[in-house]
Amino acid sequence: MDKRFTHLSVMAEVAPPLVVTDPNGTYVDATFGRGGHSRRILSLLSEKGQLIAFDRDPQAVESAKEIKDNRFQIIHAPFSHMREELSNIGIRSVNGIFMDIGVSSPQIDDASRGFSFRMDGPLDMRMDTSCGLTASQWLGQAEEDEIARVIHTLGEERYAKKIAHAIVQARNVSPIETTRQLADLVAKVVPVNKKDPSQNPATRTFQAIRIHINSELDELAQALLASMDLLVDGGKIGVITFHSLEDRIVKRFFDEKAHPEKAVDSRLPLRSFELPAAELTDIQRVLPTPQECESNPRARSAILRLATRVRNGRVS
């Protein structure tokens, strides 16, 4: 692992113990990053326990080689594929699943990855640099309406149409290939945020394009569905999110699985035992402590949501 880029995992001490309930069990760290949560999970497991981690970033997978533990293995794949990938190694059920949804500090701090407007670098933004379109390639071929929709929907940016138009006008002159080019272009059409003058005008645009390039919200939704098939009765799922779009998906998913009766037409004459059974229970919301937020500013926007899998209408 490149020592120039370090990552302090959010809620690394608090979250894993809430997910690990059986030290002899099998657990999944769906987003390895740089392994802060994985190392904490391993510390909670017995010699019989095992941890399978996932990451689609080749650099993260390479850094996982530093963990010399026969209870641990890393799989280079998006976490949306965890069900299939686990089946390939003979695992069809797990005792707990942990997800930390967000870009890791090494990805942001490495200018060559193109995630940040703070440093000039190639406009890449791919979590998995071995496949898919870069942000530059996508901006070079997407229709103006599509660019506007992505920036508005995924960045919640009110000036999305103006930004999209400026991008198309600029690319007609020369390709948009660097983070500096994109940030400067956005700054020309987005006024300074009066409520938060320190916020870079390109913040929302960069977030939106990154989420789109990596299909982050779809990946999260698919991973949540996969977790329902994998978790044993009484198994725990914990998800840390960092912005409202991600948190909304997790919150709604947990609520729908905990209260499936809400989706049933109230006019139907159904008795209580005829209503669909809950698949999740014990829903919790945990925030980082003020002390952690002070020592790790990245934690300030974090929300940890937890739930327990229910099968056959009861928790074992």
Give a written overview of the molecule.
By secondary structure, this protein is α/β, with parallel strands linked by helices. It has 2 domains: 15-105 and 216-309, Rossmann fold, CATH 3.40.50; 129-213, Orthogonal Bundle (DNA polymerase, domain 1). It has helices spanning 15-19, 36-44, 58-63, 82-88, 105-109, 135-141, 144-155, 160-171, 179-189, 203-213, 216-230, 244-258, 290-295, and strands at 26-29, 50-55, 72-76, 94-100, 231-241, 280-286, 303-309. It has a 7-stranded mixed sheet, sandwiched between helices. Helix 7 crosses helix 10 (203-213), helix 8 crosses helix 9 and helix 11 (216-230) runs parallel beside helix 12. The longest helix is centred in the last third of the chain and has 15 residues, at 216-230. The model is unreliable at 1-5 (pLDDT under 50).
When the domains are counted, the total is 2
CATH hierarchy: architecture of the largest domain: 3-Layer(aba) Sandwich
Unreliable segments (pLDDT under 50, ≥5 consecutive)? 1-5
Task: Give the CATH topology of the largest domain.
Answer: Rossmann fold
Indicate the proportion of strand residues: 5-15%
Share of helix, binned: 25-40%
Determine the N-to-C terminus distance.
41 Å
Quick description:
The protein is an alpha/beta fold. It has helices at residues 15-19, 36-44, 58-63, 82-88, 105-109, 135-141, 144-155, 160-171, 179-189, 203-213, 216-230, 244-258, 290-295; strands at residues 26-29, 50-55, 72-76, 94-100, 231-241, 280-286, 303-309.
List keywords for this structure.
disordered N terminus, Rossmann fold, 316 residues, seven-stranded mixed β-sheet, 15% strand, 2 domains, 7 strands, alpha/beta, globular, DNA polymerase, domain 1
